[in-house]
């Protein structure tokens, strides 16, 4: 990696942050042709987020192929009408900066599954996640659903704090396996009527 030597790293980061936040975002529906792009973003997000939570061998050598196979199969699977997959892009460069996937679960007592919500590491903290989450909430509400739920890996403190700030509530824990390791998945739920009420009280 090369640095511009006449700019202090902290100043460079601040400049980059201002530059990114000044660029509005657009969301577009993903297609099967986007599977490699989504897989690459998913793998990059896992590598940045889970380096202390999942085996290094999986993150360094297996995650790219794992996510590529997963998203190729998922985007080609039937039932697309029950699923929302959106890609966030910068308006000026059309650079992808994150994605969200939500899916209706007919047999689930918890509502619509917010299965994936990822902002690329370089674009975190600037509202990408909030924008994608709001789109998923609006979609679920339009489907007549009352609640969303998601799973977050135990130990992923930044994600847990983010969801709790957005009004998600802890509702349980389940054992699971991820990347060849035993993990605990924490379940969080979000009542859609509460989100609508919160917006209705917001100043116009």
Describe the oligomeric state of these chains in a short phrase. Answer: single chain
Q: What's the CATH C level?
A: Alpha Beta
Distance between the termini: 46 Å
Name the helix and strand elements from N-terminus to C-terminus, one letter apiece. HEHHEEEHEHEEH
Number of domains: 1
Helix percent reads 40-55%
Shape: globular
Largest sheet: 7 strands, mixed
Average pLDDT over all residues:
86
What are the low-pLDDT stretches, counting only 5+ consecutive residues below 50? 1-22, 199-204
CATH superfamily: Gcn5-related N-acetyltransferase (GNAT)
Largest sheet, spatial ordering of strands: 1-2-3-4-5-7-6
Number of strands: 7
Radius of gyration: 18 Å
Structural class: alpha+beta
Number of helices: 6
Q: How big a fraction of the residues is strand?
A: 25-35%
CATH architecture: 3-Layer(aba) Sandwich
Quick structural gist:
The protein has 204 residues and is α+β, with helices and mostly antiparallel strands. The protein has helices at residues 9-21, 35-49, 56-76, 128-142, 157-165, 192-200, and strands spanning 25-29, 83-90, 96-103, 112-119, 147-153, 169-178, 181-191. Strands 1-2-3-4-5-7-6 form a 7-stranded mixed sheet, with helices on both faces.
Describe the protein's architecture and organization.
It is a single chain. The protein has 204 residues and is α+β, with helices and mostly antiparallel strands. The protein has one domain (24-200): Aminopeptidase (3-Layer(aba) Sandwich), CATH 3.40.630. Helix content is 40%, strand content 28%. A seven-stranded mixed beta sheet has the order 1-2-3-4-5-7-6, with helices on both faces. A hairpin with a 5-residue loop joins β2 and β3. α2 (35-49) runs antiparallel to α3. The longest helix has 21 residues, at 56-76. Mean pLDDT is 86; it is low at 1-22 and 199-204.
């Amino acid at each position: 990696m090369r640095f511009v030597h006449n700019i202090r790293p902290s100043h460079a980061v601040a400049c980059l942050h201002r530059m990114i936040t000044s660029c509005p975002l657009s969301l577009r529906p993903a297609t099967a042709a986007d599977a490699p792009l989504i897989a690459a973003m998913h793998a990059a997000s896992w590598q940045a987020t889970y380096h202390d939570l999942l085996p290094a061998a999986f993150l360094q050598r297996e995650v790219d192929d794992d996510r590529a196979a997963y998203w190729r199969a998922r985007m080609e699977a039937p039932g697309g009408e029950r699923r929302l997959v959106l890609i966030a892009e910068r308006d000026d460069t059309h650079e992808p900066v994150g994605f969200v996937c939500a899916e209706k679960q007919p047999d689930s007592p918890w509502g619509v599954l917010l299965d994936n919500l990822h902002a690329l590491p370089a674009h975190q903290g600037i509202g990408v996640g909030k924008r994608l989450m709001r789109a998923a909430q609006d979609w679920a509400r339009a489907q007549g659903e009352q609640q969303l739920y998601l799973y977050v890996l135990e130990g992923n403190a930044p994600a847990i704090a983010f969801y709790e700030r957005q009004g998600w509530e802890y509702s349980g824990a389940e054992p699971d396996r991820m990347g060849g390791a035993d993990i605990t998945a924490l379940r969080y739920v979000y009542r859609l009527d509460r989100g609508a009420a919160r917006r209705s009280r917001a100043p116009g």
